[in-house]
Design goal:
With 276 residues, the chain is an all-alpha fold. Helix 5 runs antiparallel to helix 6 and helix 8 packs antiparallel against helix 10. It is rod-shaped. The N terminus is likely disordered.
């Protein structure tokens, strides 16, 4: 019982260390940065006729055209920056969770030690590998050792090893998946905000034409191009979020497959090498 407590505490400590930054803090910081970029870079007077942001953008000044996309550009840019920051954060966090060495080689080497009956060798590999996956396997190995000295039915011992692995996985998995739901949400919000900005831009364009009382092809083309900036930004943000989410969920799946493989190897080895 004492060993279980120590193992659980170790898993908690490792899981806590691998937790990433808060998505809420990232979003607030990205919003501030987006505001600064919008007003001081996109809204630079040099991008507009007569150095006045209220006028049309100068020909070829894409930054001025983006500025004319309105406040929706700030929101979409906030989402885009958030995806970029969280992508870097998740890459670092999942690299630490995977450990220092190749994950496939680690699984292969641990299974080889288990077949030889070298639990100490497998534990040494976990200490060398580090990371969440190694912490989970190490918890299972400690429970394996504990069960060898317990006077319980063989089936009960195997279930105890499985339960320890499941508990350790439950402690580590949330830190691996942190911030991914935010990225998944942005994949939808980015496109929706882009369409919203486009609709607002088109409304403003046609309202200006109606007030003028005649067809102004220059004003119409400028308004349409400004509105479509939001669409381009929104689609780019949504696409980046989708690609990022798929990439990191794939990495997590690979780690969970490795954990499942090691759990099966542990219980199978115990069943084959112990009569009771």
């Amino acid at each position: 019982m004492e060993t279980k407590t120590q193992t659980g505490e170790k898993s908690k400590r490792v899981g806590k260390k691998s937790r990433g930054i808060s998505a809420g803090i990232v979003i607030v910081c990205c919003f501030v940065i987006a505001l600064l970029v919008y007003f001081f870079i996109f809204g630079d007077p040099a991008n507009f006729v007569n150095n006045d942001p209220h006028n049309h953008p100068l020909p070829g000044k894409l930054l001025g055209t983006i500025y004319k996309g309105g406040v929706t550009v700030v929101l979409i840019m906030t989402l885009l920056l958030t995806v970029l920051v969280l992508s870097v954060e998740r890459f670092i966090a999942l690299s630490k969770a995977k450990g220092t060495g190749n994950l496939i080689s680690f699984v292969y080497d641990v299974k080889a030690d288990l077949k030889k009956g070298s639990i100490a060798g497998a534990e040494a590999l976990c200490a060398k590998q580090k990371g969440s996956v190694a912490a989970i396997v190490d918890a299972g190995l400690k429970k394996y050792r504990e069960m060898e000295s317990q006077s319980l039915p063989k089936e009960t011992k195997i279930e105890e090893i499985k339960a320890e692995l499941e508990e350790a996985t439950a402690l580590e998995l949330p830190s691996m998946q942190q911030n991914l739901p935010v990225i998944a949400t942005i994949s939808t919000l980015g496109t929706l905000f882009g369409l919203f900005g486009t609709v607002l831009g088109m409304i403003r364009s046609f309202s200006a034409l109606a007030a003028a009382g005649s067809t102004d092809s220059v004003a119409l083309s400028a308004g349409i191009s400004e509105a479509l900036v939001n669409t381009a930004f929104g689609i780019a943000t949504g696409a980046l979020a989708i690609i990022t989410y798929a990439f990191f969920t794939g990495k997590i799946d690979n780690m969970t497959y490795a954990i499942d493989e090691m759990g099966f190897a542990l219980t199978q080895t115990y069943a084959e090498t112990h009569e009771k």
